[in-house]
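Sample pair:
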Amino acid sequence: MSAVRGLSEAAVPATRTILVLGDSLSAEYGLKRGSGWVSLLEQRLNSEKISAKVVNASISGDTTSGGRSRLAALLTQHQPSHVIIELGGNDALRGLPLELTQENLNQMTQAAQKSGARVLLLGMQMPPNYGKDYGERFVAMFAKVAKSHKAALVPFLLKGVADAPDSLQLFQADRIHPTAQAHPAILDNVWPELKKLL
């Protein structure tokens, strides 16, 4: 009996750690604690019997520069097996140069991979009032970074939310932050790519 138990224990891999480095979209801004997509991810991992711990290091209002400056300490502290980078939206809202955002995403992806983690980038799109050219370059930036580092990519985190026919109902009054009812759809965008990495 004990031999069988020992065997099954040996077959279970060590717990993995998923570090989420994001902004308000991942930090449950304006939501009841536990209703954001990162909290829902923990529930999904449990229900799928995947042994992994989630560390949510997201800060509302954070930019790629902020994430880049925080990442080294987080990698040392948590030694994640997987890093999800959900940053860039605030860079655009503040009018920061795309080159700077791209460089920061490159550096974060590289640093995480160097530490032994697999990286998943969560892409974002800008509202049409930013202009077609800027919008296209912004979207392409995430794909470029993912491709150059062979990292995984979710092209648009808010797919099915921001472009839904009833999208206004899925956003809080500020029209920037999704409501709790939109977060299961956000997780559904992230999950297929993350599951492949796990």
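The chain has one domain: 15-197.
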